[in-house]
Structure formats: structure tokens, C-alpha cells
Design goal:
Elements: H1 2-8, H2 11-34, H3 40-62, H4 71-94, H5 97-104, H6 107-118, H7 125-142, H8 156-179, H9 185-204, H10 213-239, H11 242-247, H12 251-264, H13 270-298
Length: about 300
């Protein structure tokens, strides 16, 4: 029965769930390594080195050109993605993990709107319901800390940077969706660290901090989890419409709450559990809606 249920889940959705878990593990490692005083640009550079090596090996394994066809759009994806990544990491380091993740994962809403405008993708009713459930769930989760009476407790600059990261991620995802019609997923992924590495090294300047053995392991894990997340994300965008695929990225919020509880002793409130339940319910509605739509089309 569980195996059959998993098989019934669209392949693109399974890739996105895998991506969400990997990215949740990655942000947890970022939070952990930052406690050793490692600056954000150094973390981005370390992640880029690992991702670049893995991506290059994957492209060579496939015996395809590493440069792709639409070089300008590939470069744009790399630049936008790199800037968004810096914003996301800064938010993770300077905000509580739950709040940083929640603000970051407003990007599926931006993605759905951008996909509607630039990709002319029609947003299905089940996806709209899913997004609404997720937004309400997010409000429940952040209500203890993002109410009018306590918003000032969060660094406003960090909140603004987190929102910029969310918007940048949405732009990058739409670019990935457009590139997926002409480019191999490995080439799309390769351009991300190709741009992120020199950019982060330049911004780091002379601020390098030598990590200890534990820090090195965490930095390597950041790169590995990133690669898994990028592969899942790119595959999901190639097999599902952009608005539906990214709707499932909200599940990362639930993963981050769990890791925040285990690693950082952040005990979830009743509001958090209620919000997480709404997010899962929205994801299930989206799965069932997609399955029913395909059944109708096949008749």
C-alpha cells in the first residue's frame, strides 16, 4: 500500500520533495557552521567548490558540452541564483532557522505569478488551493514572532534580505523552466557554481576564516546537500509545470522545524504544528488534484 501510494505521486513531485529535504539539511548545516564564525561569502564559496566539482563530473559523464546552447540565459540563471543564495544564507545566519526558512519559501507564490506572466502557464485550481493552505499555514507558524507587537524583534534588514532571496529564487526557477526545453539539467546546474564561486570569492576579500575539522565536514555537506537539492529541483521543473512543482517546496518549512527542534532546541509551538498540518494538507490536495486531472484527460 505505501509503495503503491508513492508510485501514484507524480515523478516531478517526488523530485521536489527530495529537493526540499536536501535543502533543509543544507540550511541546518549553514546555521551550524556559522556558529564557528565562518562568514557567509566563505560558506557560499565552499558550497560552490563542491557543487562545481560534482556538476563538472556529471556533465563529462554524459559526454555533452559544459557550455550549453543558450549561454546568455544560463549566465543569467547563474547570476540571479548566486545573488539569491547569498541573501538566503545571510537570512539563515542572522534570523532564527524557522523564520528564515519561512520567509525564503515565499518564493513559490512569486514563481506561480512569474510563470503565469512569462511562461503563460495556467495555474490549476488544486495548485491555488495548495498555495492558499500553505500561506495560511505559514501565517500560523510565524504568528508568535511576526505579529505587529513583536516584528521589531527581528532585524528588519535581515527580513528584507530574506524577501529579496525569495524573489531571486523565484526568478531563477522560472529561468530554469525556460532553459529546460533546450538544456540538459546537468548543464543548468553546472552554471550555478560556475558563477557563484568567483562572485563569492571576490566579495569575501580578505575575510577568510580557517575552519576546523568539524567546519570542513559541514562545508562539504553543504555542497553535497545542495547538489542533491539542485538535481531534485531541476528534474522537478522539467517534469511539472513551474507553479505546481514549486508549491511542494513549502514542505521544506516542516523539515526545517524538525531540524530546528533537534539541532537548535527550538521547540515548536501549537501554532507551528497547526501551520505544518495545513502545509501538508495543501500538498496532498495538490497531489490528488493533479491525479484526478490526469485521470479525466485519459478517459
Amino acid at each position: 500500500m505505501p509503495v503503491q501510494f508513492i508510485n501514484d505521486i507524480p515523478v516531478g513531485v517526488r523530485y521536489m520533495l527530495m529537493s526540499a529535504l536536501a535543502f533543509a539539511l543544507m540550511t541546518s548545516c549553514v546555521k551550524l557552521v556559522s556558529t564557528d564564525g565562518i562568514p557567509v561569502f566563505e560558506i557560499v564559496a565552499a558550497r560552490a567548490i563542491v557543487s562545481l566539482l560534482i556538476s563538472y563530473g556529471d556533465v563529462r559523464r554524459k559526454r555533452i558540452s559544459i557550455w550549453g546552447h543558450n549561454k546568455k540565459l544560463l549566465m543569467a540563471r547563474g547570476v540571479v541564483g548566486s545573488l539569491a543564495l547569498i541573501c538566503v544564507y545571510y537570512a539563515v545566519i542572522t534570523l532564527p532557522l524557522a523564520e528564515a526558512t519561512i520567509l525564503q519559501y515565499l518564493h513559490p507564490v512569486f514563481t506561480a505569478l512569474l510563470a503565469l506572466i512569462f511562461l503563460k502557464e495556467r495555474i490549476q485550481r488544486s495548485t491555488i488551493i495548495c498555495i492558499l493552505c500553505c500561506i495560511v499555514g505559514l501565517v500560523f507558524i510565524v504568528s508568535p514572532s511576526l505579529t505587529l507587537s513583536s516584528t521589531a524583534e527581528l532585524p528588519l534588514f535581515s527580513v528584507a534580505v530574506a524577501l529579496l532571496g525569495a524573489f531571486g529564487s523565484a526568478v531563477a526557477y522560472v529561468i530554469v523552466k525556460r532553459l529546460s526545453s533546450t538544456e540538459d539539467s546537468s548543464v543548468i546546474i553546472f552554471y550555478f557554481p560556475l558563477i557563484a564561486l568567483p562572485l563569492s570569492v571576490f566579495l569575501l576579500g580578505d575575510g577568510f576564516v580557517m575552519p576546523d575539522i568539524e567546519g570542513v565536514i559541514l562545508l562539504i555537506l553543504i555542497g553535497i546537500f545542495t547538489q542533491i537539492g539542485q538535481v531534485g529541483l531541476t528534474k522537478a521543473m522539467q517534469t511539472e509545470v513551474a507553479s505546481k512543482a514549486t508549491a511542494y517546496s513549502y514542505v521544506q518549512v516542516v523539515f526545517s522545524i524538525i531540524f530546528g527542534w533537534i539541532l537548535f532546541s527550538e521547540v515548536p509551538s501549537l501554532w507551528t504544528w497547526a501551520g505544518g498540518s495545513l502545509i501538508i494538507a495543501g500538498a496532498l490536495i495538490n497531489v490528488l488534484g493533479s491525479r484526478n486531472l490526469r485521470s479525466l484527460k485519459s478517459k
